[in-house]
Design a protein that fits this description.
globular, mainly alpha
């Protein structure tokens, strides 16, 4: 999952998913700055799909086929509305040739992107293991980047590994609803917290 940086799509044997937090910000920008209603409709649709996935997750591992078909049809309709609101500009005067792709209106760029990357945008709808956005991943690496910003670098590879192990332990505990001070105390007494999903593997290696 990423923010649609072009180079990421060049990796082979990789399934891409796009961060919808980025999409929401872009859609809000288009709606507020250019008053294009399709952008607000797409924002509402993405949030509606997110709510539908959250409601279905406790009981099912996927949305019903009828739900998926309905959401896909509405997505396509909004994209068509966006394309109609942003037709390809036709120049009446010959312009000198320039290298690269011609510059387009920001709204046109966004609707083209949503049309081209529909599957990646809706990946969270097709597979419940895919999150709606990559905010969690960014939060997990935030402390590493903060450490790099403050200190510049680690003095040794061992120090870097220890730092990452501690941050990983704390992050895992938080995701499982544990108090940080309590799990740190457990680690210091040689009885570290182990999440339920890892306990069979931990017990086998003990």
């Amino acid at each position: 999952m990423h923010d649609a940086y072009r180079s990421y799509f060049q990796y082979e044997d990789v399934n891409n998913a796009l961060c919808n937090a980025h999409h929401l910000r872009d859609l809000i920008f288009i709606q507020e700055c250019y008053q294009q209603s399709w952008a607000d409709d797409m924002k509402k649709l993405l949030l509606e799909i997110k709510d539908a996935v959250a409601a279905a997750q406790p009981n099912r591992d996927g949305l019903l086929p009828a739900q998926i078909s309905d959401f896909e049809a509405r997505y396509d309709e909004i994209v068509v509305a966006g394309l109609r609101a942003n037709p390809l500009a036709q120049s009446t005067e010959p312009l000198p040739k320039k290298r690269g792709k011609p510059k387009q209106h920001p709204a046109k760029n966004l609707v083209d992107h949503l049309q081209l990357r529909k599957r990646e945008t809706l990946a969270f709808m097709y597979d419940f293991k895919v999150p709606f956005d990559n905010n969690q991943a960014e939060r997990d690496i935030r402390m590493v980047k903060l450490k790099q910003k403050v200190s510049g670098c680690f003095r040794s590879e061992d120090g870097a590994q220890v730092f990452c192990q501690i941050r990983s332990y704390i992050s895992t505990a938080r995701k499982n609803g544990q108090r940080v001070l309590e799990v740190l105390q457990l680690a210091l007494t040689a009885s570290p917290y182990v999440p339920p999903i890892l306990q069979p593997r931990f017990n086998a290696s003990a």
